[in-house]
Design brief:
Number of domains: 2
Largest sheet: 6 strands, parallel
Structural class: alpha/beta
Distance between the termini: 25 Å
Order of helices and strands: EHEHEHEHEEHEHEEHHEEEEEEEEEEEEH
Oligomer: single chain
CATH topology of the largest domain: Rossmann fold
Strand content: 25-35%
Number of strands: 21
Strand order of the largest sheet: 2-1-3-4-5-8
CATH superfamily of the largest domain: NAD(P)-binding Rossmann-like Domain
Radius of gyration: 23 Å
CATH architecture of the largest domain: 3-Layer(aba) Sandwich
Length: 369
């Protein structure tokens, strides 16, 4: 399918685009502010639209009218296509309340539903609770992003405690993708219940452990999602960090992983000079690289960006680089001797669900003939 994805450069849009790339063969047309004028032409040739673009900050009239205007534009594009183009709408539990955002989201929903009906297409309304996840903008996307930034950089946020329902952006993205094959319905994905204070306390607990390289208890899916969100805020400035080496006349001892709960799998590889391993990314896997002997360069690139982050590491001073989720990564033997690397992941390898998706770090390699 050819999918038009509005709001592709935003928080949920980026997560949805990554998940589409990892788990489907769909052709994705990302629409952002920069190419919004192409909307009608792209919908004309599309098989479906996932509408995520929205306005959630600004003057009250701008927020309400902005969401309505976006809905009008997508509705008009579907009408002009002159054929059934299914619409999947990223709605909010606030839709329909008396806030400008809620009013605007509800009005957009009504327009989109009518446009789909007029075109003889399906309309799937995905009503989402509070979202969080990697690379959320502090002070903008959610209080979780604000807390993560505060914990990572040593600030103390103001906390107004209340119960809150939270859904990771990758789970939300999956429900939007599922909507492409829906016959048309309203979907209300359940989140995890917590409190604002509880989220902050958990993030503080992560920080206290991870500052010394230790992993928290990663048995619960919500904890893994929140921990990966926290780790994303640390990258790349936190890495690599050196491990403590204990030496005596017998040799050296280096403690590479301390985990406070959950599964775990360790493996060791050797790599010949000049050879590169990796060239893939993960959606949720927590993964640690430690070079034990030899010289290496670890390179990473966030999905759908151009900048490559590189770390030179050596077995003479064992250091940790933990792979952030949804960053393509590789490791290259840059020395003239065999490279030995220890890898650790927080879950046992499942061949039916490996959570490993091929993508080169170098964009030049991707476009090479």
């Amino acid at each position: 399918m050819k999918i038009v994805l509005t709001g592709a450069a935003g928080f949920l849009g980026w997560h949805t685009r990554v998940r589409l790339a990892a788990l489907t063969d769909h052709e994705v047309v990302p629409l952002t502010r920069d190419n919004w004028s192409n909307l009608a032409a792209e919908v004309q040739a599309a098989d479906a639209v996932i509408h995520i673009a929205g306005v959630n900050r600004g003057e009250a009239s701008e927020v309400e009218r902005g969401n309505l205007a976006l809905g009008e534009a997508v509705s008009d594009a579907v009408a002009r296509a002159g054929r059934p183009v299914p619409i999947v709408y990223a709605n909010s539990i606030q839709g329909g309340n008396d806030t400008p955002y809620g009013v605007g989201k509800a009005a957009a929903r009504a327009l989109l539903a009518q446009a789909a009906a007029d075109a003889g297409a399906t309309f799937t309304d995905v009503v989402l609770p509070n979202l969080f996840g990697e690379h959320g903008a502090p002070g903008y996307n959610s209080f979780v992003a604000t807390f993560v930034d505060a914990v990572a950089f040593g600030a103390v946020p103001q906390i107004n405690d209340r119960e809150v329902e939270l859904l990771h952006a990758q789970t939300a993205a999956q429900h939007l993708i599922d909507g492409l094959s829906d016959v048309g319905s309203t979907v209300r994905p359940p989140g995890s219940m917590s409190t604002v204070q509880g989220v902050y306390d958990q993030l503080r607990g992560f920080h206290d452990l991870y500052s010394s390289g230790e992993f928290p208890d990663l048995r619960a899916a919500f904890t893994v999602d929140l921990f990966n969100t926290y780790r994303a805020a640390l990258f790349p400035r936190h890495y690599p960090f050196e491990l403590t080496t204990h030496s005596d006349d017998r040799g050296r001892l280096v403690e590479t992983v301390r985990s406070h709960g959950g599964q775990g799998q360790t493996f060791v590889s050797t790599t010949r000079p000049g050879v590169t391993r990796g060239e893939h990314y993960h959606l949720s896997k927590v993964e640690r690289f430690v070079v034990l002997s030899g010289e290496a360069r670890i390179c990473l690139r966030r999905m759908f960006t151009d900048e490559v982050v590189s770390f030179d590491v050596s077995g003479s001073s064992p250091s940790v680089v933990d792979m952030p989720t949804m960053w393509v990564h590789n490791i290259t033997n840059t020395g003239d001797t065999e490279l030995t690397t220890l890898f650790w992941t927080h879950s046992l390898f499942d061949p039916q669900n490996p959570d490993t998706y091929w993508e080169p770090v170098s964009l030049a390699e991707k476009v090479a003939p």
